[in-house]
Amino acid sequence: MSAIAEAGPVLIVDDDYHVREMLREIFRSSGYRCELASNGREAIEAFAVAHPPLTLTDVRMPVMDGLEFLKQARTADPDAVVLVLTGVGDVRTAVESLTGGAYDFILKPVNPAQLLHTAERALEHRRLLIDQREQHLLLEQRVAEATRELDLTLRQLEDTYRTTLEALGSAIDTRDVGTHAHSRRVRGYSMALARAHGVPSSELRDIEHGVLLHDIGKIGIPDAILLKPGPLTAAEWKIMRQHPEIGRQLVEKIPFLRGAVPVVYHHHERWDGTGYPLGLARTAIPLGARIFAVADAFDAMTFDRPYSRAMSFEAARDEIQRCAGTHFDPAVVVTFLGIPVDLLAAIQRGDAESSVAGPDGAEAVVLAIPSLARALSLASRDATIAAGAPRAHA
Predict the structure, then answer these.
(1) pLDDT band for position 6 (cuts 50, 70, 90)
(2) What is the assigned CATH class of domain 149-376?
């Protein structure tokens, strides 16, 4: 028995009894099983039961013609292979059958050898189409599985990045008891302010990264200056002002952190152009840096430091409003003043989740790296108090 015979029954549809029997004998003599129908309606019923991989149908029949049967059969089973019997010179029927989804047409009178050859070729075509679809589905499944695994890996990598950044911020804070949990609080204020100000969600992560790393440039500031208990000299102050540039050079070398550079580099710019390192003014200052400036100043004023007592929220908000148009972007200040005090208090206590990436994870990832552990445990320092600005980091 041929491979085609093993595929299933051949459905023969013709209203002429003698033609049906002749066609059945041709296929049976080659080992095929056959199902017979005298019109399209009978053929549809037989098709639903037998699910034949190959159907041979006449066109002109009572009750339902071959072209209507072809349409319904192909709708029921798109993989069904249908050969249409047509008379010599009936070009229109041949075109309609092929357009309707027939694999081929067979001219009457039938040549048995040609018929069997066409049937074998048609069913081989069907088998290849099914195999191709199954391979395609298998490939889609494998791609979907690989994509899920990649997504999981990326989420895990993002979690690692996030906890690393949190560790960097925490490491800076732990060097100075006066700035305990400063990075966490400023991140919270900054994210609340950025969302309230309408910053697109696609930009929030870069601002968050910049906030957490804003003082990373202090790695390059000598301890004698960074930890000096008294006022800085003019020469020392010049060196201290280099930390935004040092931070920019560090952060921009890390591809996934490059979006944080605007906050790291410009977090000491002022709205009136009197800040540093570039003396940018107004909207030339990146929005993330303008948002950070307000959040950082608010935290500096509302948290106890060794050299000063915390202001009340109301007093700090009044001071920020007073400095709108000089130190701060007036529009950002308006947004900040609209944030509920209860939310600000929750952020200060650590009760409000503020991270774009989600809840805090382990925060000691990079602290095991000795060189970073030493460098990143440097204290943040208030160096703008003498200049009369709200108490924010130098």
Answers:
(1) low
(2) mainly alpha
